[in-house]
Amino acid sequence: MEKRMHQQGILRDVVGLTFKHLNPLYLKNNPVMFVVFIGACLTAAIFLRDYYTNTTSHEPLWFTASISFWLWFTLLFANGAEAIAEGKGKAHASSLKSLAKEIIARRVLDNDREENIPANELRRDDVVRVSAGDFIPSDGEIIEGIAAIDESAITGESAPVIRESDSDRSSVTAGTRVISNALVIRVVSNPGESFLDRMVTLVQGAKRQRTPNEIALEILLIGLTLIFLIVCLTLVPFGLYSGSKLSITVIASLLVCLIPTTIGGLVSAIGISGIERALQKNLLAMSGKAVETAGDIDVLLLDKTGTITLGNRMPVELIPFEGVDINTIAKAAQISSFEDKTPEGKSILEFIQTTYGNFIDDTSFDKIKFIPFSAETRMSGCDIEHVPYRKGACDTILAFVTKLEGSAPSDFKRVVEKIALQGGTPIAISVGNKILGIMHLKDIIKPGIKERFLRLRAMGVRTVMITGDNPLTARTIAEEVGVDTYLAEATPEKKMDFIKAEQAKGFLVAMTGDGTNDAPALAQADLGIAMNSGTLAAKEAANMVDLDSNPTKILEVIEIGKQLLITRGCLTTFSVANDVAKYFAIIPALFIVTIPELSVLNIMGLASPFSAVLSAVIFNALIIVALIPLALRGVKYRPVGAKSLLARSLLIYGVGGVIAPFIGIKLIDMLLAQTGLI
Questions:
Q1: Is 166 a catalytic residue?
Q2: Which residue among 303, 469, 514, 579 is the active-site one?
Q3: How much is the pLDDT for 398?
Q4: Domain presence at residue 113
């Protein structure tokens, strides 16, 4: 019953939007359909004039009434296609947005007391506390605590996820539920500004910004409309000269048939449906341009960890250099990793604790100055009584001890290269100016990732693996998974420089990321995709957010973008081909009475000029109805080359667009002939 009521609600919205979009102030944004609107109004006015004045110099009333009806039919179903697309998107977004309704938030006051307020009264920078069983009242950033979160209402995944402060997984979304533990959250959006609110705004066609491709297509459609307007106007003096009086009704009908009404009526629906398809994949696009850009991507940058490999790199062994006790290096590894909040840092602590025991005494914390890991330094550590303990990338640690007048052990290079050639990550550990040993971190390649890169290559997308590893490790993993190239020892500056260099060559670049250090590159990329589990900085810098936080979904993102562009291109090809065919189908029939010589061109054998015009108008209306499901579903995308794609489009939609009007108009003409009116 609830589902039926929901469907009825969507249907009411679609019907309401269909008639609401008949407003001339709205239609003026779509020049093609605005011409149809003028034609429908003119023919309706002519019918009413002829009906009440009872003059004898007009076409039959049934003809004028039929033309007017089918022009209004064309307009309504073109509006209906857009309304259906908007309605589907609104229903999806509204169902997500409703998750946060009627939630009571526990806002933390300055004196650490709490007050209960409705979630929609929260403002940016408010601090709220949530416990196990509570729903998160607003989009926010965790500032204290760690908890398991049920995000199934948004992502559809039943397995809970871990969110915690001071990590790249500190972001939470309104409407999700805390399963265990408690969190203190800083609200990051005002009412109406959350990611889910943006979904609702985005799928509202009247507010949706047109993309560059849509603007270019609109210019094309306006140009074609002006060309056919001139053609139709030139037929008036030609008709007078030949003795064929072409009325306003006929001219308006002919103009509507010849201008690209098919794509003009479906272009908005295609764009909105593309965004809605992204929404179904739990991808929040900040604009329609982001979805379209995905279809044109040339270069894709992916983080190795979490995208190509299974997240945490796991320690498998400690390799001490000559003369170093294993417990000494284990202690140095644990102490220097204590403030490393990265997944690798946590896995190292767990490995040392499990394998060698605990070497840190809580009572000695006041004597230790901890240095957290950062992407810029690529190492972490601490200072104990002015003695530096460090752990990090091998080249970084080597440079660090060299500055302290130390040097690398004799077999340092051999051990590092051996681990790198195995596809592992060597991490150097030092105390003072001496490198004690190497920790071997092992990456686990995600199953099926190589096949995904093959599909991306078939799409013409060049893949680039980004990693902080040394070049040897990066090259080994890159060869194993099949990426086109790699960027080793990547820092935020290196990522930025790489993206700028590719863009300078004329390429469109996409990047995925979730950390604060990814934010500059996400902002620079033509398409930045941030993980919803990531930091606020990353999400604000990106123009698309993956609510599932699945970095490998970039393949689906690109396919959705390409499908949108292909759908628009195919239906444009079909529409233009239709117009050409209708022109050659109708014009001979219009003048066959006064110019019998044109009968040789009337290859369709249409019954009369009235039948030719009305059949074309009816076909023009019905073809839009027939193509609405295709516009909403999208043309199926196949990862083939551009030449094959163009050839297939021209064969199916170009040739098909020429043939369909001849068949359709002839069938309608035969049905009209059976009525005896023509």
A1: no
A2: 303
A3: 92
A4: no
